[in-house]
Amino acid sequence: MLTILSGPSDLRRESDSYAVTAEFYDILQADADEVRVRRLYARHIADARTGVLDVGAGTGRVTVLALAHSGVDVHAVEPARAMRTSLLTRLAALPTEQRNRVTVHPRPLDELALDSVADVAIGHNMVGCLPPGIREKLWPALGKALTPGGSLFVQLPPARLPTRTIVRLLADKRVGEHVYGGRITMSAVGNRIRTRADYWVRDAEDVLREQTETFWMWPATRAQLTRELAAHGFAQLPGYEESELLAVTLPGRR
Ligand SMILES: C[S@@+](CC[C@H](N)C(=O)[O-])C[C@H]1O[C@@H](n2cnc3c(N)ncnc32)[C@H](O)[C@@H]1O
């Protein structure tokens, strides 16, 4: 479903993706992801001197880490209304000093004109969600948003299509009398990965409700992304060859 938004200068169409997933995202995935996000980005965030850009901020785990581990401004870019709702709820609970440093941008990055706002940019678990055509628009937008010498850290998407259906069960979480559960099923369809998320809520006797949302993902290898980024002036940072991150910088720009 698409919502028509009335903006200051024009009408914008807003995506309703993650409308189902947003409810279940943190309760089922936040604990494991919190540990991963700290491990992958905490030290880079601590090095930020100008700003941190969290592209595809989702419910805000990287954004909140950036506010807590740096003293710089933070830009959280999140086009999906459902995810942004959780993000803003999280930001509302922060101390005023931190909330005053974060700006939430409700559009895709390539539709914003962010210019030199950050020296550290992070794309956690988002590049795989972009079709190649949109990815190609993301790189120059990131180049513009970064200051000269700034760095970009991107969590790598799956390198290739799965050869068989992959099913991942999410750990159950109790909430009072109910237990929340979920399953992610990934399979190849053409050049994309169909990613179906099934969620359910149970009590002691029954399944009370079940909901489903399907996403598409596009695989890309480190070499392919490195080539795409190089075409927009990014150079690889050494030492990440074995990492789940692709790390690049914009040396000597401008
Ligand atoms: C799988 S979610 C990950 C969210 C968050 N980074 C996390 O790991 O919890 C991917 C996010 O990227 C956002 N997104 C998709 N296209 C985008 C774009 N062009 N610019 C910025 N964000 C985008 C989606 O709305 C979604 O919230």
Description:
This protein is α/β, with parallel strands linked by helices and 254 residues long. It folds into two domains: 2-157 and 220-249, Rossmann fold (3-Layer(aba) Sandwich); 166-217, Single Sheet (S-adenosyl-L-methionine-dependent methyltransferases), CATH 2.20.130. The chain has helices spanning 21-46, 61-69, 81-92, 96-99, 132-145, 222-230; strands at 2-6, 11-15, 51-55, 73-77, 102-105, 118-123, 146-155, 166-175, 178-189, 192-202, 207-217, 235-236, 245-249. It has a seven-stranded mixed sheet, sandwiched between helices. Strands 8-9-10-11 form a four-stranded antiparallel sheet, covered by helices on one side. A two-stranded antiparallel sheet has the order 1-2. α2 (61-69) links the parallel β3 and β4 (73-77). α1 (21-46) packs parallel to α2. The longest helix has 26 residues, at 21-46. The protein starts with a strand and ends in a 5-residue tail after the last strand. The structure holds S-adenosylmethionine. S-adenosylmethionine is lined by residues 18, 55-59, 61, 77-80, 83, 108-110, 124-126, 129-130, 134, 138.
